[in-house]
Amino acid sequence: MSSLGRIKKVVFFTLLSIGCVLSSCQSKKASLFSPIPSSKSGVLFNNRIIENDSINILEEEYVFNGGGVITADFDNDGKRDLFFTGNQVPNRLYRNLGNLQFEDITATAQVDATGQWATGTTYADVNGDGYLDIYVCLAMYKNNRKNLLYINQGAQTDGGIRFEEAAEAYGVADAGNSMGAAFFDYNKDGLQDLYVLNNEQSKVLPLTYRKKVTDGSAPSNDQLYRNNGDGSFTNVSLEAGITIEGFGLGIGVVDVNQDQWPDLFIANDYITNDLLYVNNGDGTFTNRAADYLKHQSMFSMGVDVADFNNDGFKDIISLDMLGESNYRKKTTISYSNYEKVILDRKWNYETQHSRNMLHLGNGNQQPLSEVGMLADIYQTDWSWAPLFFDADNDGDKDLFITNGFPRDITDKDFSDFRQSVARFVNSDILLDCIPIVKKKNYAYQNKGALAFEDVGDQWGIGIPSFSNGAVFSDLDNDGDLDYVVNNINDPAFVFENTASTNGNRYLSIELKGPANNPTGIGAQVVIRTGQDQFQTHTNYHSRGYMSGVDDRIHFGLGTLDTISQLEIRWPDGKVEVQKQIPTNQTIPLSYQAASIPSTPLAFPMNPKHSATSAFSAIQEDISLDYTHQQIDRADFHIQRLLPRKLSENNPKISPLDANGDKLDDFVISGSDGESPLLYIQDKKGKFKAQPLFTKKEISEATIDDHNSFDIDGDGDKDIVFLFNYNEYRKNNYYGKVVVLLNDGKGSFTQDVNRFPKLDSQLSLLQPIDLDGNGQMDLFVAGKIKIQSYPFPDPSFFFENNQGRFEDKTKAVFGDNLPQGGIATALATDFNNDGKIDLILGSPFHPLQFFENHTQGLRAATPKSMTNIKGWWQSLKEVDYDQDGDLDYLAGNLGQNNPFNISEKTPITLVVNDLDDNGFHEPLLFSYNKDQQGKLKQYPVTFWGNLNRQSPYFRKKFNTYKAFAKADISKIMTEEQLAASTQLTINNDQSLLIENLGDGKWTHRPLPIEAQWAPIYGFEILEDNGSMELLLVGNDFGNEPFIGPLDAFSGLHLKVADKDFKIVPKANSQFEVPGNARDIEKITAANGDKLLLVSQNNDKLLVFRKN
After folding, report:
1. Which uninterrupted H or E stretch holds 1004?
2. Nearest to 523 by CA among 488, 572, 483, 475
3. Strand-strand pairing, 161-165 and 148-155
4. SS3 label, residue 730
5. Residues 6 or more apart from 423 whose CB is under 8 A from it?
6. How, if at all, do strands 505-512 and 585-590 pair?
7. SS3 of residue 728 by DSSP
8. Degrees (nearest 5) of the Cα angle 407, 410, 414?
9. Which residues, listed in sequence order, are joined to residue 92 by a DSSP beta bridge?
10. With 0-12 CB in 10 A as exposed, 13-18 as middle and 19+ as buried, what is 514?
11. H or E segment and range at residue 23
12. Contact residues for 283 (Cβ-Cβ < 8 A; gap 6+)
């Protein structure tokens, strides 16, 4: 069948499916959105693309990137018109006649650009004449792709409107391969400047690591045009600092640091990093993506900016192309590649991962937190346009995402086929072999608390399509936002929103700006809806992908009938405040009514400020300049199927008074290959470091843990270390407990003879006075060697006999030995009987409670906890409810992960030596959707990783498609599964475990902000009956495809009325953005409370409690 024949077939079945949707609406409950047939709306635009020998996906990878759409009032009649850009077809302008009916006025308007490949588009009143003008980006044809500026000539004598193309005259006829543009006033001179995305394609560069081009000379450098105010623009890219290459597809204007200057988020495709150009306020920009974004999308496409959770901080979403079903993932991704991590580091690229990113604004100029997996919006296939808007008028912004691609060039089976036969067949045959990705667009209802629910089908937009640019607009002026989509090879979608009939209310705002900015580009509006409740919006037209949305500002309000206060700040700082505004109406806000305020407006119109903060970072003030340096042990090269690195658990901190001066000192793990350091505090509260071992003494060792207690009963604190040795060539792995005995004056003597010799490795120390004789015994957890994952070496219990330690493991634990690779241990009296018990946390196991019994430690895990299996990282005791018995905080993986973990859908680790080579394969399975949307257990990792791990998998499957369809029952036989070790995790939440007394326990998750990443440490501060909790975490060593679990920046909680209250960063200033591993409290020489926070491969932080 020819390409044209295939297209006609696809169009036929799409029209048939749309017809089915329309007819079924008569018999089913009405959806929120109803598709308006083109025969009724008059919108006949179809971005039809017909491939030929030179224009096809094999020759031009961007052939199906699609076009955009604008909704704006071009004829000033109060109704928003529609403008579509076409690739091989002319652009189309439709006048809004009312009642969702439109008239094609392209011919008289003269905006068709016939014969040119139009992509992105945006609008503004460029010449200040009161009529909106159109800017159109062009691409593909190198000799015919100068961008267009259509200047609106206003109403004509015949009642129509006409445009004149004037890009050359205005100086904005950019000839790059442009994908989009945005008008914004970057220098705050009152004139709208223009940023143009440039994506000049290359057959070599997109995926090739090399030195970044940062001097503005790259063919794919974006362009910034300054509006001179005289009908001309000047290209100021170089002088403004717009000099970093990128394959740009998306742009979002955002004030990321709340300084009231517009910054730019640029979404770049391929290997080029996303950019965050922060406006310096002097006409220049600095890329600070590495400071604000901990990781990015790999193949970034569309972008949107909004405060979707109504916390006053702008959030950013960028889209990628990760499939939602297991089939789509496993047919488009070959393997999780750690070499990419190494190359990113070598060539100074920020880390990128192929999935949608939802960067949550935190304010306080701290990094944004990427929570796309927590919100479950991270996998929407080949995605293009994200848009946040309140579709159901309930007061929360929902999320709409377009997707689809006519030819999936990323299909791995096709890639293999192409590589093997490309020399022997023509392009028509190859094109016929490329899969089609015709997918439904997504609508996510905002459920609050960072949760979204996919309601695309329920809301009526679930029609398979190849969709690109999209806009929202109240096309029929009925108080809800309609939705319009530009499709490839199908008529454009015009969806009518029926939210105006659901009882929810709204407020629509039409801005009346000054002559050079009549639509109020850059104006910020805040509505206050209750005590500390508000919504905010900053007005920029370029949103989503290649498109320009309605210039009116729309707020959904639920059942609220009156807004207590509305504030608007125009770009020049002038402000207007209105009070007691009835809802369910459209109101005008005029620039003429605004004035410079005499006092600053409250947050979120201005940043949060606190006269005093709870904490101050003081490490530099007290001479603590420690920075940990981690050697990359390349765990994933040793064991390709590891879910997370095992080698990055340091540095640990052990407080003690080392020299008997009654001042707190501390020990901290050294960098890899370096000695642990003892920091001695002087009377002025400053610290001086001294190494505890020579380089020779530690040259062959890895020091995994340390602790401080009185070993020899002389009244001062000694220090105990766990040394581990790896003699790879001899296949010899062993550990050693090394003791430094303190003479009471800060001098230490090494003693290696106080513990038995061990032929296994150790990872964790927990002192515990089991028999209550005043001598600390020691529990020591066995270490998991990377090649033996997940099986640990044995754990031990050493009894302290006058400073000599004897192995009493069997006597103490009996047959109930600790299970799993223990990650955290806590000596505590959990049953309130005056004797110290033990709680252990091991991934893939319930928390293990061991009760201190006359005959040792007896298993006593509460019944309510026996079936809760987590990825435990940390434990802390706390009398949370002040009832006299101890409750517990348990740090877990957190919910910002891709595993879909629940009691019904656990992850399962299946371990078996499938190829009988003496090494186990640890296969992690999680529940994922099959092609019909049913949840099944599939391997988390990819076929390429399995192939590299074992010949068993190379023999089992011949194609990616076969592997993609294989759930757990197809990966392993019933006999193999029965012979395997199977471990599960059914809870990923960090928890409060509450002691109810009488042996009864309950648990509940910590606040959602504590679930953004793994929690590695807790600390508690109590003063005058008040209690505060400090949490630290992150895991930068997660497997490389998903990448770092790094959304956490520390959390400060106050406990009040048995509930947790989050202390805002502006008030707290407790900020820990790195790979935190420990938190300990000490007292400064002047009596101040200090918190020490260690970070792997980063600096030690010290916070003073103010």
Report:
1. strand 1000-1005
2. 572
3. antiparallel
4. helix
5. none
6. parallel
7. helix
8. 80
9. 84
10. middle
11. helix 3-24
12. 186, 187, 236, 239, 240
User: What are 811's two structure tokens?
Assistant: 């006597």
Model confidence band, residue 13 (pLDDT cutoffs 50, 70, 90) = very low
Residue 928: left if φ>0, alpha if ψ -120 to 50, beta else—which one? beta
398 to 141, 393, 455, 1044: CA distances (angstroms): 37, 9, 10, 27
| Rounded Cα distance, 394 and 397, in Å | 8
- Predicted model pTM: 0.95
Stated as kind and residue range, the H or E segment containing 977 is helix 974-978
Of 310, 185, 258, the C-alpha closest to 605 is 258
At residue 9, does pLDDT exceed 70?
no
Exposure of 640 in the CB half-sphere (CA atoms within 13 A): 16
Distance CA 70, CA 79 (A): 13
Q: What are phi and psi of 277, to 5 degrees?
A: -80, 110
Q: What is the DSSP secondary structure assignment for residue 1064, as one 8-state letter?
A: P
Q: Look up residue 282 and give its DSSP letter.
A: S
What one-character DSSP code corresponds to residue 867? T
278-302: buried (b, 16+ CB within 10 Å) or exposed (e) per residue? bbeeeebbebbbebbbbbbbbbbbb
From first CA to last CA, the distance across the chain in angstroms is: 75
Evaluate the omega torsion of the peptide bond into residue 262 and state whether it is cis, within 30 degrees of 0.
no
Going by C-alpha positions, the residue among 1026, 1067, 1024, 1032 that lies closest to residue 1048 is: 1032
Measure the CA angle with vertex 607, ends 602 and 610; round to 5°. Answer: 85
The pLDDT, as a whole number, for residue 29 is: 61
The full length of the chain comes to 1106
Whether the per-residue pLDDT at 701 is higher than 70: the answer is yes
Tokens at residue 884, please?
Answer: 């006299």
| 88 pLDDT higher than 70 | yes
Could you count the other beta carbons within 10 Å of the beta carbon of residue 815? 6
CA dist., res. 58 & res. 27, Å (int): 44
Strand partners, 353: 297
Helices and strands in the chain, H and E counts: 20, 75
Average confidence (pLDDT) over 397-425: 90
Kindly indicate the confidence band of residue 3, based on its pLDDT and cuts at 50, 70 and 90: very low
Other CB atoms closer than 10 Å to residue 377's CB: what's the count? 25
| CB-based burial label for 660 (10 Å; 0-12, 13-18, 19+) | middle
Residue 212 in contact with residue 275, Cβ under 8 Å?
no
Per residue in 547-572, is it b (16+ CB within 10 Å) or e — as a string? bbbbbbbbbbbbebeebebbbbbbbb
Do 900 and 927 contact (CB within 8 A), yes or no?
Answer: yes
Sorted by sequence, the CB contacts under 8 Å of residue 384 that are 6+ apart come out as: 66, 301, 302, 319, 401, 402, 403, 467, 468, 469, 470, 544, 545
pLDDT of amino acid 423: 75
Contact 572, 548 (CB under 8 A): no
CA dihedral 24, 25, 28, 32 (to 10 degrees): 140
CA 58 centroid distance within chain: 32
Structural contact between residues 96 and 82, judged by C-beta atoms closer than 8 angstroms: yes
Element holding 762 (H helix, E strand) = strand 762-768
Place of tokens 């100074």: 348
Distance CA 618, CA 659 (A): 23
Three-state secondary structure along 659-716?
CCCCCCEEEECCCCCCCCEEEEECCCCCEEEEECCCHHHHCCEEEEEEEEECCCCCCC
Locate 270 and state its tokens. Answer: 């391929």
Secondary structure (DSSP) of 414-463:
HHHHHHHHTTTS-HHHHHHTSPPB-EE-EEEEEEETTEEEE-TTTTT---
Q: What is the pLDDT of residue 206?
A: 62
- C-beta of residue 1102 within 8 angstroms of C-beta of residue 1081: no
The order of strands in the sheet holding 981-985 is 935-939, 921-929, 907-912, 981-985
